[in-house]
């Protein structure tokens, strides 16, 4: 078949929904709609059909709210064992991405939990061992089915996974193509088709004025945070005299016994011998 018939270029925005042929066929059936999101997709697809159908062909997306994203994160294997049994930590980490980033932060004045837990239980330790940075995910997919027969789930392939965590870190896997050449996907079948695709960053370049404005905001934010921390720590520190060499030694008390009460703190002093050493 002519190569130009199978070449497709799509520009995708963050969490932008592009429907596949399978989803179009599915959500046009009223009986397949169960959740509010299903009904929303059905309405959007009906509008697309009235406007002449979807513009994309083989390339489509799954957003953070789609069932595919939940199942993909939950079913990922972490070892190469055929009968892998996920550990407690793996199961908990699979649920981290479901925590949305639009939660309001807890104000310092409304902190109700204790800062220190003196006798943590085993369950408490296991729960707090999980990195709970919220993550949002989207998948750019390719329907690599036979020519003219789109809409089969078995031919869906992940082309690119994009994740953004609560700290603003963006992860693109695989990375932007750049000068490395296109990525290849080989399909098992009678014809053993080979597909090639590239991933490019299509984001608009930030204007110098906007970048400078952002830097000023960040500097102001960091400056206020620094002042806040300085206010908490204070300035009552003894400074060494000019030309004086001072040595700091950090130590730790690992055990103590014979004290009358619990939860006490200790002042201890280290007295060094007043001697002078000469080195050759």
From TrEMBL:
Full protein name: MKS1 protein
GO biological process, one term: cilium assembly
PROSITE patterns in the cross-refs: C2_B9 (PS51381)
Keywords: Cell projection, Cilium biogenesis/degradation, Cytoplasm, Cytoskeleton
Listed InterPro entries: C2_B9-type_dom
One GO cellular component, as annotated: MKS complex
Top-rank taxon, per record: Eukaryota
Entry's localization field: Cytoplasm, Cytoskeleton, Cilium basal body
Keyword Plastid: no
């Amino acid at each position: 078949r002519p190569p130009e018939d199978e070449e497709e270029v799509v520009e995708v925005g963050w969490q932008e929904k592009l429907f596949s042929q399978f989803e179009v066929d599915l959500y046009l059936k009223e009986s397949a709609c169960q959740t509010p999101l299903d009904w929303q997709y059905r309405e959007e697809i009906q509008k697309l059909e009235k406007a002449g159908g979807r513009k994309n062909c083989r390339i489509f997306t799954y957003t953070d709210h789609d069932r595919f994203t939940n199942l993909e994160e939950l079913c990922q294997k972490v070892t190469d064992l055929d009968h892998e049994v996920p550990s407690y930590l793996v199961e908990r980490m699979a649920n981290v991405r479901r925590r949305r980033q639009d939660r309001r932060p807890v104000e310092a004045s409304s902190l109700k939990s204790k800062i220190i837990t003196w006798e943590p239980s085993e369950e408490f330790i296991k729960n707090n061992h999980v990195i709970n940075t919220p993550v949002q995910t989207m998948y750019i997919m390719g329907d690599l089915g036979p020519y003219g027969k789109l809409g089969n789930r078995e031919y869906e392939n992940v082309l690119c996974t994009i994740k953004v965590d609560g700290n603003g870190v963006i992860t693109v896997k695989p990375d932007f193509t750049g000068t490395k050449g296109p990525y290849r996907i080989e399909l098992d079948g009678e014809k053993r088709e080979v597909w090639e695709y590239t991933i490019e960053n299509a984001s608009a370049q930030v204007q110098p004025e906007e970048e400078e404005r952002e830097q000023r905001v960040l500097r102001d934010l960091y400056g206020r945070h620094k002042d806040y921390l300085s206010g908490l720590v204070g300035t009552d520190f003894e400074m060494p005299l000019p030309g004086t060499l001072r040595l700091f030694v950090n130590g730790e008390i690992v055990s103590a016994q014979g004290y009358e009460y619990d939860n006490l703190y200790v002042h201890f002093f280290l007295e060094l011998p007043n001697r002078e050493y000469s080195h050759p």
